[in-house]
Amino acid sequence: MAGVFHGEPLATRKMPILADQAAVAPGRPVFPGVRVLVSNSASPMTLAHVNILFELIAFLFAISVHESAHAWTANRCGDPTARMLGRISLNPLKHIDPFGTVVLPLIAMLTHFPVIGWAKPTPVDPRNFKNPILDDILTAVAGPISNFIVATSATLLLAAIALTGAEGRMIVQGLLKGFAFGNSALVPLSLLLYALLEINVLLAVFNLIPVPPLDGSHVLRHFLSDDVRRVYDTVGVFGLMALVFFGGQLLMSLLRPFLSFYVSILSILVGI
């Protein structure tokens, strides 16, 4: 096969269901234990729709950044394939796979299942690389690194919100302690940033797992013998399916330290 693809299945948890101030509806939180209380000015149904919108925005932005990073790095390393196809872009339409990016995640969100999906893979032709092994590794890790950069930016913006005044500080402190409340526009903004933080960390960590075709496999495969590599590439898709559908505990054990790290940084920045 002349070309390879850098792309990823995505697996995200549900954000908390926004609730009327009189009663907090149960939902899977951004971070464990988070519950959201907002003004009575909107119905729970409307707020649930806002919640789904936040997830979709964070989801689409995360995959756009991720795939653009693959394409940009590949171009810098000598392969213009993705650039010529317009993949160095934050426009999600350039990266959307109709079923994997839209239909499947939307069904999962509406049915309260964990969100599983994928973006359109970024095409890469290793024959154009100046240093095929090193450049393939750099192109692969560029995606997760870009997501960590977004997560770090979201953390700094949340810290900035906390420094705007007493209200902002209370909102961010509440998120860190497991709840969010208030009528301020800073509440939905903080929740959106929280979603960006979580989904980008999850996307980065998930893709660093060395199971084909995840990005981490493009690092490990170059250290394997030819015979082992062929088997690794062939059976990897079955390992990925097992990981997505049966490896929930493993995924959470890998994800939790990274999320805890960002929460700790945010706590230090806001003085908790």
Gist of the model:
By secondary structure, the chain is mostly helical. It has nine helices and seven strands.
Please provide a written account of the structure:
There is one protein chain. With 272 residues, the chain is mainly alpha-helical. It has one domain. Helices cover 60% and strands 8% of the residues. The protein has nine helices and seven strands. The strands form three sheets. It has a three-stranded parallel beta sheet with strand order 3-4-7. The protein has a two-stranded antiparallel sheet with strand order 1-6. A two-stranded antiparallel sheet has the order 2-5. It is globular, with a radius of gyration of 20 Å.
Distance between the termini: 53 Å
Please state the structural category. mainly alpha
Q: Number of DSSP strands?
A: 7
Which range best describes the helical content: under 10%, 10-25%, 25-40%, 40-55%, 55-70% or over 70%? Answer: 55-70%
- Rg calculated over all Cα atoms: 20 Å
Helix segment count? 9
Number of domains: 1
| Strands in their spatial order, largest beta sheet | 3-4-7
Global shape: globular
Q: What portion of the residues fall into strands of 2 or more residues?
A: 5-15%
Largest sheet: 3 strands, parallel
- Low-confidence stretches are 9-45
Mean pLDDT: 79
Which features does this protein show?
single chain, 272 residues, mainly alpha, two-stranded antiparallel ribbon, 9 helices, 8% strand, globular
